[in-house]
Every structure is written in structure tokens, then in C-alpha cells.
Amino acid sequence: MNGMIRMANSTQYQLIEDCEATHKALYKFYAAVMIVIFILALPLNASVLHLFIFKLKFWKSNTNNVFLFNLVLADILLLFCLPIKAYNFIHGERRSGNDTVCKAMLFMLFLNRGASIAFLTVTSIDRYFNVVHPGRKNLLRALKKSPQISILIWLLLLPLTIPTMLKNFDCCNSHKNDGAKDDALIKDVVDSLREVVFFTQILIPFVILVYCTVHIVNRLRKKTVGDKTKLKRAVFLVTSVMVVFSLCFLPCTIARMVLLIARVQEWSESYQDKAAVAFDGLMVLSYMDCLLDPLIYCFCSTKFKALYLSSYFPFLVRDGAEPLDSSTGNTSNPKRNNMI
Fold first, then answer.
1. What is the membrane topology listed in the Swiss-Prot or TrEMBL record (predicted)?
2. What's the CA gap between 119 and 125, in Å, rounded?
């Protein structure tokens, strides 16, 4: 009897290692969530991308728009991975059985999610210097005058995607004790490097965002001169960034940490299975970032919101609203532009 139980547990554990979902109904729910995110976020990001290119002409206007354009671009590229991943989940697979497709998916997922986090962080740092140290010279202010800084960020992210495509990272097989001794050291180094990339990609930007947000909020609360409505909107904006980042990325990071502990300490197969299922579910939650980023960074701007409504929902624009310049997104009144 005990032998049969051990055999059943061994079979279930092998399913985990082979990337087969042991809770197929739950993974179908995960797939449904990803499909909903895709359906909602794709037209939103595509419409925002269209405005940045054809209306705002981001390369000519406010340099900060370059960062926001790249943020939306990273999110929309990440969205194209979701239908494939949802397809795998529906068929009871945690990843594609095709090795080429699997590695291509990992490359796209980690590159574009890393880019999304990077541009989110860079934009927050830029806002930090503009609000807390408005007159101080800094490297970012000098670099952001050139759009090439965005290309540099993408290039720097490329090497970080290499460790994530080695082995079966998507199936959480880091530090697996498979009994092989010959290449154990090399495998441990690769696994450790992969985990370092995963955690630093989230934890370092999170620390930076916390620092910037706290100082921006304190600075704006102490400021007594200026448009109070605008100051409140700025405080709401930076606070929203922290909330979204914490909601989307911290849960999957904690779940990943628990899963690694379960693997290294060789918890029972059932606990490892539960940890893997929880990690996959919270990774699905992290894709909500693609839906929330444009809502926070683009629609918290009165100028951009007015441009978006006038372009796609003109019936919602009040008759007395001032016209927008199609190339810059500014109103025709220069005094009004200085107030936005």
C-alpha cells in the first residue's frame, strides 16, 4: 500500500517536473484571466501607442514621453505572449512542449516585463528629480535629452534574458536534486544566476520606487505654493504606481521565494505542487501590469486624457473644451499649456 502511494506521489511529482498542470481546472481559470487581460489591455495599449506616434509625435515633444512610449511598447509586446500561454494552460501544460516556442516565450516574457519595470522605474526617478531636486543637475536629465537612452535600456536588458532561457525555468526547476553529480556545480551556478536575475529585476526597482515615492509625497505635502489640485493629483499618481507595483510583482516574488525554499529543503511533493500552482497564478496576476500602466501614467495627465477622449470618444468631450494641437497634444492657449 505504501509502495503504491509512493508511486502515485512520484508520478504526480514527475508531472510537475514535466510541466504538466496537476490542477487542470484551476489552470483553465488562469487561462481565462489571461484572455480577459489580453482582450482589455490590447486595444487600450494599441490606442495609446497610436496617439504617441501619430498625435503626440513623442520624439519631438516632451522627452518624458519617450519613456512612456517605451513603457507602453513593452507592455503591448508582452501581451502577445498571453494567448500562447493561455493555450498551454487550457491544454493542461505549464509551458509549451516545443523547446523553440518555450524559449522564445521566455525571451519575450522576461525581456518585455523587464523593460516595462525598467521604464516604470526610470520615469519615477525622473519625476523624483523634477519634484524633489528641480534645480539640481543629474545624469538622467542629461541623458534623457537623447532618445538613444531608451535604446540603451533595451540593449542592457538583453543579456539578462539569457539565464532565464536555460533549463526549464518556467516550470520552476531551479536547484532540482536529480542525483547527477558530474555537472552539479555548473547547474547550481546557472540556477543561482537565473534566480538572481528574477529577484533583482523586481526587488531593486521596488526599493527605488519606494524611495522616490516617499520623497515625492513628502516634498509635495510641504509645498504650499502652486495649484493644490495639481499637487494632489501628483501625490495620487506616485502612490498609485507603488500600489500597482506591489499588487502585480511582489506576490509572485514571494511565491517564487517560497517555491525555492520548498525545492531546496525538499518538502513533500504535495506542498511543492501547491507552491508551483500558487506561483503560476501570481505570475498571471503580474500581467495585470499591462492593463494598469497606461491607466496610471497616461490617463493621470489631463493633457493626454483630453487628447485621448477627443480622438476616440469625441462625444464625451464638452463643447467648451479647448482644441488640442494634433502634433503636440497641447491646447491652443499657451497660458493654459503652462498650467498643465
1. Multi-pass membrane protein
2. 10
Q: Locate 258 and state its grid cell.
A: 517560497
Residue 46: left if φ>0, alpha if ψ -120 to 50, beta else—which one? alpha
Rounded to whole angstroms, the Cα distance separating 133 from 245 reads 24
First-last CA distance in the chain: 74
Q: How confident is the model at residue 76, as a pLDDT?
A: 93
| Position 283, amino acid | M
In this predicted structure, what is the pLDDT of residue 159?
83
Residues in contact with 28: Cβ distance below 8 Å, sequence separation at least 6, in sequence order: 89, 90
pLDDT of residue 6: 45
> pLDDT over 70 for what percent of the chain?
73
Query: What are φ and ψ of residue 137, in 5° steps?
Result: -75, 140
pTM (whole model) above 0.85? no
Grid coordinates of 15: 508531472
DSSP 323: P
Three cell numbers written together for 131:
519634484
Span 19-174+182-300: which CATH code? Answer: 1.20.1070.10
Residue 106: half-sphere exposure toward Cβ, Cα within 13 Å: 25
Give tens-digit pLDDT for 154-182.
988 888 777 666 655 555 455 555 544 44
Query: For position 226, what pLDDT does the model report?
Result: 60
Nearest to 41 by CA among 116, 111, 102, 91: 116
Positive or negative: CA dihedral 209, 210, 213, 216: negative
The cell 501570481 sits on which residue? 282
Q: What is the pLDDT of residue 255?
A: 93
Low-confidence ranges of the chain (pLDDT < 50): 1-17, 172, 179-182, 322-340
Q: How far apart are alpha carbons 155 and 147 in whole angstroms?
A: 13
| 74: Cα within 13 Å, side-chain hemisphere | 28
Q: How is residue 54 written as a grid cell? A: 501619430
The contacts of residue 267 (CB under 8 Å, 6+ apart) are: 261, 275
What gap in Å lies between CA 242 and CA 289, rounded to an integer?
Answer: 12
Q: What cell does 225 get?
A: 505654493
Integer Cα distance of 213 and 329 in angstroms: 27
